[in-house]
Amino acid sequence: MRLAFSTLGLPTLPIDQVVRLAAENGYHGVELRASDEEPVHPGLAADERARVVEQFAAAGIEILTVAAYARVAARGEDGPVLAETEAAVDLAADLGASYVRVFPGGGDLPAAEADALAERRLAAVAPYAADRGVRVLLETHDSHRAGADVARVLGAVGHHSVGTIWDVMHTWLAGEQPSSTYPVLAPYLGYVQVKDIASAEDRTPLALGKGVLPLAETIEVLSRAQWDGWLCWEYEKRWNPQAEDLPGMLGAGREHLVRLLSESA
After folding, report:
1. Using one digit for the tens of pLDDT, what is the confidence trace for 166-224?
2. Nearest to 143, CA basis, from 177, 115, 102
3. Tens digits of per-residue pLDDT, 91-131?
4. pTM for this one?
5. Neighbours of 12 (CB within 10 A)
6. Hey, CA dihedral for 90, 83, 103, 39, is it positive or negative?
């Protein structure tokens, strides 16, 4: 398995510093948060996109994902959701990223209605993503927190350019065990987001291995299945400014994941 981290843990940090941190701490890739407040977002001009590609390539670091914020199960018209997703797909293609992240965002809609919205929109964007060589990944999150919830949608979509990100915190909060989540997500799995928190009530991000999330169990399940994709550390510093700064923890976080991988082998 290869290791990445998300720039959600490094709010507004310039790309050259993100690349340096990845290289110095032994990570293979980076998930780029695509928000207007960040240095990389869909509004970047062509020359700016090319410069980002050059910076990552020079360090041998892969741009794993454009982490967008489209909510495919949210109330409203399809048009704005599809336009937002397609803009993120274009950005990912120009950066050489494999994936675009989207959220469900079904809120308090009945499950069947939220499912139908997500299915229709993901099916609509799938051919566009396929043409651009990008996969759109629906994260286990909010209204579709459990692996079974996301798998229900993706099974109905049935397109190879649409898959999932397994966020281990959200499936744990949904009451799923890794041994139950992996089999239902395996046909669609793009990669796995790892993190750690103190409890279900206190989700302030912690260093990997310092909280309650089943990281060892998750990696054990993946290893037994001979899954060889990406593990991406999503440290939610942007939403928790009081949390410890990520740069000083990156090295130890990588060592923790490597140790878990070694033990699972």
Report:
1. 999 999 999 999 999 999 999 999 999 999 999 999 999 999 999 999 999 999 999 99
2. 115
3. 999 999 999 999 999 998 999 999 999 999 999 999 999 99
4. 0.98
5. 11
6. positive
